[in-house]
Design brief:
Radius of gyration: 12 Å
Oligomer: single chain
Distance between the termini: 37 Å
CATH class: Alpha Beta
Amino acid sequence: MRHNHAILDFQRKRGEGSAAFVLPFLDATTAILDVGCGPGTITAALAKTARSAVGIDISAKAIASAHEMASSAHDKSRLRQGHHDGAAL
């Protein structure tokens, strides 16, 4: 259990670092669609600032990891993850 927590913490910090260059352009009215969100680390970081953040990925395994990341997010109501084919949107 502690190992999983350490991995999630590392991923969260990495996602926050990756999202840092976009954050100055976001506010509480911004809606984010993260196509190809992978494990959801950047989506979760963006959800802290934006009105909402939706992450989609074609990989069910990536979305399973994203759901785990979302379950540990502080404001889960603004973060959604789903398994979708972006071309079908």
